[in-house]
Write a structure and sequence with these properties.
The protein is of the alpha+beta class and 685 residues long. The chain contains 17 helices and 35 strands.
Length: 685
């Protein structure tokens, strides 16, 4: 099986392929037509490998990370949406929890996603199920059809979200509503809360369901177009898509639950961070992914990616599994600007792919972070993006000179200012996932990736005291690589309230987990990887009696008496880790049972991934000496090396610059770079 991973960013499209037992990487400018970019990336990697899928009897799996769902939400270009709720609860989406992020801001706008389905698009349906799943009032089927017909005829709704009260306990009414609507309105896209997020807390459940329905038509159309385009590229082609949780899923699984696609691109970078850390023998990591538009920061503890079940999209809750990522608007295309008071800022606005930074010579005329590091001498004009882009230092000099004139300084001084601001902003993002959570970043290894990571990560590490930076062999395409090593997975959840976990009926809990496991195995049997054994990870959401929210606790493979005792003890430990205290005398409640069913990805050969050159006795000479400016040194003569020519054991002290096809690595004074056995560059301060 050949695998191709494609990650479309704001500036570049990254491609990684494992074909004929070898790794291949490529970068190409992102196309305004995303579908064209994906298919173009596939063609590019196949041309590199010489594989002709039209004639060769091969099976190619395309794994794709996309921001299609996120963009539809941010741009508010989703479906015209209707919402059915239990009578009396039609405004739950807009009422929310009556919380405000700033109590004293008299001009604050709404902080609930009422825009998803405005008041006249929301309907209360006569039906009622109580908290134990008993039917109190039967579903008024005639009203369901009548009201939806009105929404379709009068408002031309394109999708419908259904969120009945207590449907997590009994989904019969939601399923019946979907059944009769499928017959009456076969082209209407319908999302059910009992499928999207079958857990208690009505507001969060209706939000997740409404988001799912809002992006469903656009995601379904995109996936179908993509499948059709890729089918022309090979008779054995299959499409998989990255999920927000860090697992991959089939196209059909993704279309069935499109809300799972938010953050799919950044999630792949988190999985790749864990993978390269494991190869290098490191399990405590902080990853920093510097792209063209933004910088994403993630944390790996004990070799495991951090997953959150209570995430947010903007100010709105989105209760679906997601990798835990902090994002700042600082990237290679971030635009530098001056406010009314004369202060210098960088980002969050980005020049993107087109017109891009001025030095790309694609029409950009605003100073960006890429232009700044061009002026500082870090970028090689004739060896950038594997030679696909010939940079124009004179254009970067021009826009930085204009910026400097407004600040009363030279172009180089302005570039240093831009660079320092970016380093500070990236450092703050790292503090959010470490210091804010009681973790000392100095105990972690920083993994640098993304096209801009190498130019900033060593300086960011130095700024906050991190002693070691790991730069993988192909950092600029690491997110695409992460798709090749991600597990195929599906998740299940069930609200199962137990007032005192220590007294829980182990047989009942075990039965519920077995049901979730059977569902996961059934899904993967039809949509997963043929012949790969299905494994399961069990967790429970628990809390002290009287607490408002839960913590997720890992469980063992069997919930017997010992497993029950271990669960309670694990909760105390997790509570202490998060809040700094615990109390074994307090009653521990169990609220939700969670299960991830997964099929592990085939491991890639170490030699193919590392690509490390054997150690050599001969001295490695620099490809040249350039004049580069460093914030703490000024302008100095700096050697440049070709990263791919460096063998295992190579070592040099900074300042130095390393060019490679997908990034540029810059180390300063007091830092040392060395190549390890896995082909990584290890930078120590």
């Amino acid at each position: 099986m050949h695998r191709i991973g494609i990650d479309i960013g704001g500036t570049f499209t990254d491609i990684a392929g494992f074909i004929n037992e070898r790794m291949y990487y490529a970068k190409a400018p992102s196309s305004p037509d995303v579908l064209e970019g994906v298919i173009g990336g596939v063609k590019m990697i196949l041309e590199m490998t010489g594989v002709d899928p039209q004639h060769d009897d091969v099976e190619i799996v395309h794994i794709h990370g996309t921001t299609i769902a996120t963009n539809a939400l941010h741009e508010r270009k989703g479906a015209r949406l209707g919402l059915l709720t239990t009578e009396g609860h039609r405004d739950a989406l807009e009422m929310g929890r009556m919380k405000r992020s700033n109590l004293y801001d008299m001009r604050a706008g709404p902080e609930t996603p009422g825009f998803l389905a405005r008041g006249r698009f929301r309907v209360g349906i006569r039906e009622r199920i109580d908290g134990k799943g008993n039917i109190v009032n039967p579903l008024d089927e005639a009203q369901v059809v009548e009201e939806v017909r009105r929404l379709v005829d009068a408002f031309r709704i394109e999708a419908l979200a259904i969120c009945f009260l207590n449907s997590f306990s009994n989904n019969r009414h939601e399923e019946r509503a979907a059944e009769i609507l499928a017959e009456a309105f076969p082209n209407l896209k319908v999302s059910l809360s009992s499928r999207v997020n079958p857990t208690f807390r009505e507001y969060e459940r209706v939000c997740a369901t409404a988001f799912d329905a809002y992006v469903r038509p656009k995601v379904e159309h995109y996936v179908k177009q993509l499948e059709g385009g890729l089918a022309h590229e090979g008779k054995g082609a299959r499409l998989h898509l990255m999920q927000s949780s860090g697992g991959i899923a089939s196209a059909d699984m993704t279309v069935a639950k499109p809300v799972s696609m938010f953050l799919s691109g950044p999630a792949a970078g988190v999985i790749a961070t864990r993978y390269v850390g494991e190869m290098a023998g490191r399990s405590e990591l902080v990853g920093i992914d510097v792209g063209g538009t933004s910088t994403d920061v993630c944390l790996i503890r004990d070799g495991k990616a951090q997953i959150t079940r209570e995430s947010r999209i903007g100010m709105y809750p989105l209760r679906v599994p997601m990798v835990d990522i902090e994002t700042v608007g600082s990237g290679g295309g971030s635009i530098a600007w001056i406010d009314e008071g004369g202060g210098l800022h960088v980002g969050p606005e980005s020049a993107g792919s087109y017109p891009g930074p001025a030095c790309y010579d694609w029409g950009g005329d605003k100073p960006t972070s890429s232009d700044a590091i061009m002026v500082l001498g870090y970028l090689n004009p004739v060896y950038f993006a594997d030679g696909t882009v010939n940079l124009r230092p004179d254009l970067a000099e021009k826009v930085l000179t204009e910026l400097g004139d407004r600040l009363g300084m030279s172009a180089v001084e302005a570039a240093v200012g831009v660079y320092r601001i970016l380093v500070s902003q990236m450092a703050e993002a790292i503090k959010l996932v470490t210091i804010k959570r009681g973790i000392d970043p100095r105990d972690l290894t920083m993994v640098s990736f993304g096209g801009g990571g190498g130019a900033f990560a060593p300086a960011v590490a130095k700024d906050i005291g991190i002693k070691e930076v790991l730069v993988p062999r192909s950092p600029g395409t690491l997110s695409a690589f992460g798709m090749l090593v991600a597990d195929f997975e599906t998740d299940g959840v069930r609200t199962f309230f137990i007032r005192d976990t220590a007294e829980a009926d182990c047989d009942l809990v075990e039965q519920e987990f077995r049901k979730l496991e059977a569902q996961g195995e059934e899904t993967l049997a039809s949509e997963g990887l043929n012949g790969v054994k299905v494994l399961h990870r069990r967790t429970a959401e628990m809390r002290y009696e009287g607490q408002g929210y839960e913590l997720e606790v890992p469980l063992g493979a069997v919930f017997d008496e010992q497993g029950r005792a271990d669960a309670v003890e694990a909760f105390h430990r997790v509570h202490n880790d998060v809040f700094g205290h615990f109390n074994r005398e307090r009653t521990v409640e169990l609220v939700n049972l969670r299960l991830v069913s997964y099929q592990p990805a085939d491991p890639l050969p170490f030699d193919a991934v590392s690509g490390a050159l054997p150690a050599e006795a001969a001295d490695i000479k620099p490809t040249g000496i350039c004049r580069a400016s460093f914030p703490d040194l000024g302008e100095v003569a700096t050697p440049r090396y070709r990263r791919m020519d460096l063998p295992v054991g190579f070592r040099i002290e900074g300042p130095a610059i390393f060019d490679q096809p997908d990034t540029t690595v810059v180390i300063g004074k007091g830092q040392e770079a060395a190549i390890d056995a896995a082909g990584n560059m290890i930078i120590r301060s």
